[in-house]
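Consider this record:
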Amino acid sequence: MQPTLPDQHSIRDLVLEAQRVLAAGPHPDRARIDAETLLLHILQQHNPGQNRARLLTHLDSTAEAHSTAEFHALIERRLSGEPIQHILGEAEFYGLPFFVNRDVLIPRPETEHLVEKALQLAANFTNPRIVDVGTGSGAIAVALAAHLPGASITATDLSPSALAVAKHNAARNGVKDRVRFLAGDSLAPIAHESFEIIASNPPYVPETDRPSLAVEVRDYEPAVALFAGEDGLAIYRRLVPAAFTALTRGGFLALEIGCGQQSAVSAILQAAGFRNIQFTSDLQGIPRVASARRP
């Protein structure tokens, strides 16, 4: 649907009309902030010194015609359900900027709990060897490399396109020489190697949940990084036993898990031989990270 916005008007009028248009879209609760964010993105391309504070204090300024036209296009994309991170080409994760596109999952706040846990576990070792399985955008590996200068970081992914994004993000955040990127399924690329820590945010959404997902997730993010069989546990069943073998004695596995998967993941970890199984909850009290130690 083509949004109707004024061709040339004040920034205030542009934002208000865009807010009205987006309120009819898939995320009406974000209409105002999305309108401001997208307009700021356009203005910054023509004036890098522009920021949100300046935008909000100059609402009566008139937007240039070319900026207005570009804004129209971005509002149309957002109205269709495209994630705002894809439109901007960027997402923030653990205080760092990451380029994102349709080849990778958009890094989410829940995954920051996994990074926190991995950093805590790393304190048990001197210069630990760490592998991030299914790195996607590289968010976990890059964040760990940025905060653990003595660690040896490896990141694997089945998708060459995802690895290209991850390498770009490692370079962007100044850690390209600190992360080894390998193409392949799960732990296969590092067979016969040992690690002190294995971290992963694997696919864990049940196939049965596909119809109920938000359009920006279901239609714009890679299905291979989302879905894991009918119950969402397929990857855990493969990864957990393989991780047990790849870890050194006393090494740790840290996994992001889905809502309601605590008991099932705990059982999988126990069956593989892991001990000291713990769960970390997110800010809503939902268990989001499973960690366990190889005895």
Remarks:
- The CA atoms of residues 143 and 245 lie 25 Å apart.
- The chain has two domains: 11-80, 93-293.
- The two ends are 58 Å apart (CA to CA).
